[in-house]
Records
---
Amino acid sequence: GLTEPVNITKYVAGEFKRLVELLSGAVKKLSDKRNLSALGDTCVEMKKIIIACDSRVDAAIYGLFPSETDVVGIIKWMEHFELLQVLMEKCENVVHTIESIIIKYG
C-alpha cells in the first residue's frame, strides 16, 4: 500500500529540515575565514543525511513496483521521489561548494 512511501516521505522531509538548518548555519559561517576548517564536520554530517535520504528514496522507488498495481499511482510516486532526488542533488552540490571554499581558503 501507500503507507511505506508516505512514511519515507515524512522521514526525508524531517531530514531535509535538518539539512537546511545545517546548510544555513554553514553558509553563515563562511564569512569567518579563520574558522573555515571547523565546517568540515558539518559537511560530513550533511553528506550522511543526503546518503541516508538517497538510500531511503531508492528503496521506496524499488518498493513501489511489487506492492502497487495502480499505474497512475506509481507514476505519481515516481515523480514525487524524482523531485526528492533532485532536491538531494542540489543540496549535495551546495555541500561540495562549501567543501571547495574550505579547501581554497581554509
Note: The chain has a mean pLDDT of 90.
---
Amino acid sequence: KVNKHHPENNSSSAQLDILAKEYNLTQSQTDMLSRYLELLIEWNNKFNLTAITDPKAIIQYHFNDSLALSQHIDFTTIQSTADIGTGAGFPGIPLKILYPHLHTTLI
C-alpha cells in the first residue's frame, strides 16, 4: 500500500482515489493497484520496465489508459484475454484487477 505519510505519496493516493471513483473500484482493487504501483517502481529500478517513473504519471498514463479499455469493450462478457507484448503488465494487470473473473495471459 502507498505510504500516505510521504508527501509524494499523498498525491498518488489521491490520484488512485479518483481512479477508484471513475471505475467503481473496490477498496481491495484500489489496494492491489497501489501495491502494483509500488512493485512497478521498485522493479523498474532494476529492469527498466517503463520510462514513466513518477507515481502520478504511472497512474494517469498506465493505469487509467489500461482501464479506459473497459469503456469500449464489455469485459463482463469475456472469459479470457491475452496481452501480447505486455512489458510491464499494461493493460493486462490493471484489467485483471478490474475484472477478476478474466483468465489473463501476459505474453
Note: The helical segments are 7-22, 27-47, 55-67, 92-98.
---
Amino acid sequence: EVFPMLSEARYAELRDDIASHGQRMPITLCPDGRLLDGRNRMRACDELGVAPRTEVYGGDPYDFVVGSFDEASKKCPRVGWAQMAATLEITSRAWKMLMEKRRKVGG
C-alpha cells in the first residue's frame, strides 16, 4: 500500500464515473492474486456490484511499484523525491531501485 486511498470526494467521483462509463483502467494483480494497483477501483466495483476488469503483472512487483512511483512523481513535479517517498512510505528496496533507475537514465 504505497499510494494512499483517494479522499472520499475523489472516491465518489471515481465510483460515479465507473457507474456511468464502466471501468476504464484494469486493476493490476500479481500472479498469486495480490493487488498491485487499483484498490479504489476494486472498492468501487465491489460497491457497484460490477465484476472488476483485471490484468496480471508477470514481472517483479517492486518494478511495478517503482514505475508507478515514477509516473506519480511526473504528475507532481513540485514535490521532492525524498518528501514523496516519506509521505507515501515507499519501501527501501523500491526506493533504491528507483534511485538506481534514475541514475542510469540521467534523471
Note: The first helix runs from residue 8 to 21.
---
Amino acid sequence: ALFARVRSLARLKAMTDGANAVLELDDRLRRYWTHVENSALYIRKSSRMAELVELVAQRPAITVRGASEALNISRQAAHSLIQSAESTLLLRETTRGKSFRRYVAAF
C-alpha cells in the first residue's frame, strides 16, 4: 500500500511539473507574440518581416539561404532582413560562427 501511494504521489508530481512547464511556455510564447506585434508597428508595410516571423514559427531554425529560398528574395535581402529581426530581438543566432549561421525565434 505504501509503494502504491508513493507511486501515485510521484505520478501527481510529474503531472504538476508538466502542467507548470506548459504554462511557462505558453507565457513565453504570448510575450514573444506581443513583442512581434509591437515591433511590426514600426516596420514598413512592404517589409517581409511578417513572412520571416511566420517562417521561423514553422521551422526549428532558419539560415539566410533557407530564408532567401522560402521568401523568394536574394540572399543579401534575406541577410539584411534577418539582421533587422535580430536587432529588434525577434531572432537569435544559435551558432556563433562566421558561416552557416542558424537563427531561431528569440522567446
Note: The longest helix spans residues 2-40.
